[in-house]
Amino acid sequence: MISIFRLCLSASRQTLAPVRLGLNLLANYRAALRERHERRWLKANLSRLGDMALHDIGISRGEIGCVAANRDVDPRGVRSAG
């Protein structure tokens, strides 16, 4: 009796593997879309700020795209030589 249960459990895991893979793909796709939306939202809002406001938060207009793409990096810690 137990061996039949294990056999059925093993078969159900194999059957559900493609479903899990599909769900993981959808979750990853959704996370990527959310990240893209947040980047675009941040870039649009930073672009609306004036140069003085951008200066107050420590970035220049030319750094907006970089800041939006790398939200986890502090732009004040990365400066070009010059």
Give your account of this protein's structure.
By secondary structure, the protein is mostly helical. Helices cover 73% and strands 0% of the residues. It is built from three helices and no strands. It has helices spanning 2-48, 51-57, 64-69. The longest helix is centred in the first third of the chain and has 47 residues, at 2-48. It is rod-shaped. The model has no long low-confidence stretch (mean pLDDT 81).
Topology:
Blueprint: H1 2-48, H2 51-57, H3 64-69
Residue share in helix = over 70%
Structural class: mainly alpha
The separation of the N and C termini measures: 77 Å
Number of alpha- plus pi-helical segments: 3
Strand and helix order: HHH
Which residues sit in consecutive blocks of at least 5 with pLDDT less than 50? Answer: none
Which term fits the overall shape?
A: rod-shaped
β-strand amount: under 5%
What's the mean pLDDT score? 81
Count the strands?
0
Radius of gyration, Cα only, in angstroms?
A: 24 Å
> What kind of sheet is the major sheet?
none
What is this entry, summarized?
Helix content is 73%, strand content 0%. With 82 residues, it is mostly helical.
Structural descriptors:
82 residues, rod-shaped, 73% helix, mainly alpha
